[in-house]
Specification:
alpha+beta
Protein backbone atom coordinates (compact mmCIF):
# COMPACT_ATOMS: atom_id res chain seq x y z
CA UNK A 1 0.00 0.00 0.00
CA UNK A 2 2.87 2.40 0.73
CA UNK A 3 4.23 1.81 -2.78
CA UNK A 4 0.80 2.33 -4.30
CA UNK A 5 0.35 5.49 -2.20
CA UNK A 6 3.66 6.91 -3.47
CA UNK A 7 2.56 6.22 -7.05
CA UNK A 8 -0.84 7.89 -6.50
CA UNK A 9 0.83 10.87 -4.80
CA UNK A 10 3.10 11.25 -7.82
CA UNK A 11 0.03 11.91 -9.96
CA UNK A 12 -2.08 13.67 -7.30
CA UNK A 13 0.50 15.54 -5.17
CA UNK A 14 -2.15 17.55 -3.29
CA UNK A 15 -3.06 14.40 -1.29
CA UNK A 16 -0.31 13.47 1.22
CA UNK A 17 1.11 9.95 1.08
CA UNK A 18 0.12 9.32 4.71
CA UNK A 19 -3.53 10.15 4.02
CA UNK A 20 -3.57 7.84 0.99
CA UNK A 21 -2.04 4.99 3.03
CA UNK A 22 -4.59 5.53 5.82
CA UNK A 23 -7.53 5.56 3.38
CA UNK A 24 -6.39 2.42 1.52
CA UNK A 25 -5.69 0.58 4.78
CA UNK A 26 -9.11 1.44 6.19
CA UNK A 27 -10.75 -0.13 3.14
CA UNK A 28 -8.56 -3.23 3.43
CA UNK A 29 -9.20 -3.54 7.19
CA UNK A 30 -12.93 -3.68 6.55
CA UNK A 31 -12.35 -6.36 3.92
CA UNK A 32 -10.14 -8.30 6.37
CA UNK A 33 -12.80 -8.32 9.08
CA UNK A 34 -15.49 -9.44 6.63
CA UNK A 35 -13.50 -12.19 4.89
CA UNK A 36 -10.84 -13.38 7.34
CA UNK A 37 -12.54 -12.97 10.71
CA UNK A 38 -12.30 -10.72 13.76
CA UNK A 39 -9.15 -12.32 15.17
CA UNK A 40 -7.15 -11.84 11.98
CA UNK A 41 -8.48 -8.29 11.60
CA UNK A 42 -7.58 -7.33 15.18
CA UNK A 43 -4.06 -8.81 14.93
CA UNK A 44 -3.53 -7.05 11.61
CA UNK A 45 -4.58 -3.66 13.01
CA UNK A 46 -2.17 -4.18 15.93
CA UNK A 47 0.71 -5.19 13.61
CA UNK A 48 -0.02 -2.39 11.16
CA UNK A 49 -0.19 0.35 13.81
CA UNK A 50 2.94 -0.96 15.56
CA UNK A 51 4.85 -1.09 12.28
CA UNK A 52 3.82 2.50 11.46
CA UNK A 53 4.86 3.74 14.90
CA UNK A 54 8.27 2.02 14.73
CA UNK A 55 8.92 3.42 11.24
CA UNK A 56 7.91 6.91 12.43
CA UNK A 57 10.19 6.62 15.48
CA UNK A 58 13.13 5.47 13.34
CA UNK A 59 12.63 8.33 10.88
CA UNK A 60 12.25 10.89 13.68
CA UNK A 61 14.95 9.89 16.14
CA UNK A 62 17.45 7.68 14.30
CA UNK A 63 17.53 9.56 11.00
CA UNK A 64 18.27 6.33 9.07
CA UNK A 65 20.47 6.58 6.01
CA UNK A 66 20.85 4.15 3.15
CA UNK A 67 23.01 1.16 4.02
CA UNK A 68 25.48 1.63 1.17
CA UNK A 69 25.68 3.50 -2.11
CA UNK A 70 25.09 0.20 -3.91
CA UNK A 71 21.39 -0.03 -4.79
CA UNK A 72 21.55 -3.81 -5.20
CA UNK A 73 22.97 -4.38 -1.70
CA UNK A 74 20.32 -2.09 -0.22
CA UNK A 75 17.57 -3.94 -2.04
CA UNK A 76 18.90 -7.39 -1.09
CA UNK A 77 19.35 -6.66 2.62
CA UNK A 78 16.04 -4.80 2.82
CA UNK A 79 14.22 -7.70 1.14
CA UNK A 80 15.72 -10.22 3.58
CA UNK A 81 14.73 -8.17 6.64
CA UNK A 82 11.25 -7.53 5.24
CA UNK A 83 10.66 -11.21 4.39
CA UNK A 84 11.78 -12.32 7.86
CA UNK A 85 9.45 -9.88 9.60
CA UNK A 86 6.46 -10.62 7.37
CA UNK A 87 6.87 -14.39 7.69
CA UNK A 88 6.91 -14.07 11.50
CA UNK A 89 3.67 -12.06 11.38
CA UNK A 90 1.98 -14.39 8.87
CA UNK A 91 3.04 -17.39 10.96
CA UNK A 92 1.01 -16.00 13.87
CA UNK A 93 -2.15 -15.63 11.78
CA UNK A 94 -1.95 -11.91 11.07
CA UNK A 95 -0.50 -9.53 8.50
CA UNK A 96 1.16 -6.12 8.48
CA UNK A 97 -1.82 -4.60 6.69
CA UNK A 98 -1.94 -3.22 3.19
CA UNK A 99 -1.78 -5.62 0.28
CA UNK A 100 -0.74 -8.38 2.72
CA UNK A 101 -4.48 -8.61 3.46
CA UNK A 102 -5.26 -9.26 -0.19
CA UNK A 103 -2.49 -11.87 -0.28
CA UNK A 104 -3.99 -13.59 2.77
CA UNK A 105 -7.43 -13.63 1.10
CA UNK A 106 -5.96 -15.22 -2.04
CA UNK A 107 -4.19 -17.77 0.14
CA UNK A 108 -7.37 -18.66 2.04
CA UNK A 109 -9.87 -18.86 -0.81
CA UNK A 110 -7.65 -19.94 -3.73
CA UNK A 111 -5.16 -22.03 -1.73
CA UNK A 112 -2.06 -20.23 -2.99
CA UNK A 113 1.07 -20.23 -0.85
CA UNK A 114 1.21 -16.92 1.01
CA UNK A 115 4.48 -15.97 -0.69
CA UNK A 116 3.01 -16.56 -4.15
CA UNK A 117 -0.06 -14.53 -3.20
CA UNK A 118 2.19 -11.65 -2.14
CA UNK A 119 4.08 -11.96 -5.40
CA UNK A 120 0.90 -11.72 -7.49
CA UNK A 121 -0.45 -8.67 -5.66
CA UNK A 122 2.79 -6.71 -5.29
CA UNK A 123 4.03 -7.52 -8.80
CA UNK A 124 1.13 -5.55 -10.26
CA UNK A 125 2.11 -2.53 -8.16
CA UNK A 126 5.76 -3.08 -9.10
CA UNK A 127 4.92 -2.90 -12.80
CA UNK A 128 3.16 0.41 -12.13
CA UNK A 129 6.30 1.59 -10.33
CA UNK A 130 8.39 0.89 -13.44
CA UNK A 131 6.07 3.09 -15.48
CA UNK A 132 6.11 5.85 -12.84
CA UNK A 133 9.69 6.06 -11.54
CA UNK A 134 11.76 4.67 -14.37
CA UNK A 135 13.29 1.39 -15.39
CA UNK A 136 16.17 1.18 -12.85
CA UNK A 137 14.25 1.82 -9.64
CA UNK A 138 11.27 -0.11 -10.99
CA UNK A 139 13.28 -3.22 -11.85
CA UNK A 140 14.99 -3.23 -8.45
CA UNK A 141 11.53 -3.02 -6.88
CA UNK A 142 10.34 -5.97 -8.96
CA UNK A 143 13.47 -7.92 -8.01
CA UNK A 144 12.74 -7.25 -4.34
CA UNK A 145 9.12 -8.30 -4.78
CA UNK A 146 10.08 -11.63 -6.38
CA UNK A 147 12.72 -12.28 -3.70
CA UNK A 148 10.33 -11.40 -0.89
CA UNK A 149 7.61 -13.71 -2.23
CA UNK A 150 10.02 -16.65 -2.45
CA UNK A 151 11.65 -16.00 0.93
CA UNK A 152 8.37 -15.66 2.86
CA UNK A 153 7.24 -19.18 1.94
CA UNK A 154 10.62 -20.69 2.80
CA UNK A 155 10.87 -18.85 6.10
CA UNK A 156 7.33 -19.84 7.13
CA UNK A 157 8.22 -23.46 6.35
CA UNK A 158 11.30 -23.03 8.52
CA UNK A 159 9.30 -21.69 11.46
CA UNK A 160 6.87 -24.61 11.29
CA UNK A 161 9.31 -27.43 10.54
CA UNK A 162 9.10 -30.39 12.90
CA UNK A 163 10.71 -33.83 12.88
CA UNK A 164 8.76 -37.01 12.12
CA UNK A 165 10.39 -40.11 13.62
CA UNK A 166 9.90 -43.84 13.17
CA UNK A 167 11.84 -45.71 15.87
CA UNK A 168 12.56 -49.43 16.21
CA UNK A 169 14.31 -50.38 19.44
CA UNK A 170 14.42 -53.11 22.05
CA UNK A 171 14.13 -50.32 24.63
CA UNK A 172 10.78 -49.05 23.38
CA UNK A 173 9.22 -48.81 26.85
CA UNK A 174 12.04 -46.60 28.13
CA UNK A 175 11.81 -44.44 25.01
CA UNK A 176 8.04 -44.04 25.36
CA UNK A 177 8.49 -43.08 29.01
CA UNK A 178 11.14 -40.49 28.08
CA UNK A 179 8.89 -38.98 25.39
CA UNK A 180 5.94 -38.66 27.79
CA UNK A 181 7.69 -37.69 31.02
CA UNK A 182 10.72 -35.71 29.85
CA UNK A 183 9.52 -34.18 26.57
CA UNK A 184 5.86 -33.83 27.60
CA UNK A 185 4.80 -35.33 24.27
CA UNK A 186 3.06 -38.50 23.19
CA UNK A 187 3.67 -41.11 20.52
CA UNK A 188 1.92 -43.92 18.70
CA UNK A 189 3.06 -47.53 19.12
CA UNK A 190 2.56 -49.59 15.98
CA UNK A 191 2.74 -53.38 15.85
CA UNK A 192 5.20 -54.61 13.24
CA UNK A 193 6.97 -57.72 12.02
CA UNK A 194 10.68 -57.91 11.34
CA UNK A 195 11.37 -59.26 7.88
CA UNK A 196 14.93 -60.27 8.74
CA UNK A 197 14.44 -61.45 12.33
CA UNK A 198 10.94 -62.92 11.79
CA UNK A 199 9.96 -61.45 15.16
CA UNK A 200 7.12 -59.22 16.28
CA UNK A 201 8.32 -55.69 16.97
CA UNK A 202 6.94 -52.34 18.12
CA UNK A 203 7.47 -49.27 15.95
CA UNK A 204 7.25 -45.89 17.65
CA UNK A 205 5.83 -43.01 15.61
CA UNK A 206 6.31 -39.51 16.98
CA UNK A 207 6.47 -35.90 15.75
CA UNK A 208 8.63 -33.48 17.71
CA UNK A 209 9.97 -29.97 17.56
CA UNK A 210 13.63 -29.88 16.55
CA UNK A 211 14.91 -29.17 20.07
CA UNK A 212 12.97 -32.17 21.43
CA UNK A 213 14.17 -34.37 18.57
CA UNK A 214 17.80 -33.65 19.48
CA UNK A 215 17.15 -34.58 23.12
CA UNK A 216 15.40 -37.81 22.13
CA UNK A 217 18.13 -38.74 19.65
CA UNK A 218 20.81 -38.28 22.30
CA UNK A 219 18.80 -40.34 24.81
CA UNK A 220 18.32 -43.23 22.39
CA UNK A 221 22.02 -43.11 21.53
CA UNK A 222 22.78 -43.63 25.23
CA UNK A 223 20.41 -46.50 25.99
CA UNK A 224 20.32 -48.35 22.66
CA UNK A 225 23.07 -47.54 20.13
CA UNK A 226 21.70 -50.27 17.83
CA UNK A 227 18.25 -48.68 17.52
CA UNK A 228 16.89 -47.86 14.06
CA UNK A 229 15.57 -44.31 13.57
CA UNK A 230 14.00 -42.83 10.44
CA UNK A 231 13.69 -39.02 10.40
CA UNK A 232 11.74 -36.75 8.03
CA UNK A 233 11.07 -33.02 7.98
CA UNK A 234 7.40 -32.08 8.39
CA UNK A 235 6.47 -28.54 7.34
CA UNK A 236 3.07 -28.33 9.01
CA UNK A 237 1.62 -30.15 12.01
CA UNK A 238 -1.94 -29.47 13.14
CA UNK A 239 -3.50 -30.73 16.36
CA UNK A 240 -2.93 -30.88 20.08
CA UNK A 241 0.51 -29.70 21.12
CA UNK A 242 1.13 -27.99 17.79
CA UNK A 243 -0.88 -25.48 15.74
CA UNK A 244 -4.66 -25.39 16.08
CA UNK A 245 -6.55 -26.76 13.11
CA UNK A 246 -7.92 -23.80 11.13
CA UNK A 247 -11.24 -24.71 9.53
Amino acid sequence: VSGLAIIINNFVPVIPVGIIILFLNLILFVIAFLTLGNQFGAKTIYASITLSMIMWAMETFLKPQQLTDDLFINAAVGTLIMALGMSMVFNKGASTGGTDIIAKILSKYFHFDIGKSLLIVDFIIGITGVLTFGITAGLYSLLSIVGNGALVDRLIDGFNTSKELMIISKKEKEIVRFIIEELDRSCTVLNGYGGYTSEDIQVLYVILFRRDYIRLRNYIKEIDPKAFISVNDVHEVLGEGFSDIQL
